[in-house]
Amino acid sequence: MFVRIVKMSFHPQHVSAFLANFELMKEKIRNAPGNRLLELYRDKNNPDIFFTYSYWETEEDLENYRQSALFDEVWTFTKQLFNAKPEAWSVDK
Length: 93
What we know:
By secondary structure, this protein is an alpha+beta fold.
């Protein structure tokens, strides 16, 4: 199992749209094959910065999710709202 951490920074006027979409999609992502956990964190000092924290059984599970129609739907919507390039890390737990 490993952890995927993604940092996302949004234009302030788009934060509510991101949060609403995350609320709609989170259970679908949590039910993706190999996903064991998905959480969303908000930066304490900058309310426009968020982190997703997810556990995946294997790197192949994450890659399969990243190639899925679900990911395409989520990412196509979300990337329009960014004010900076997202950053991602895969780390061992």
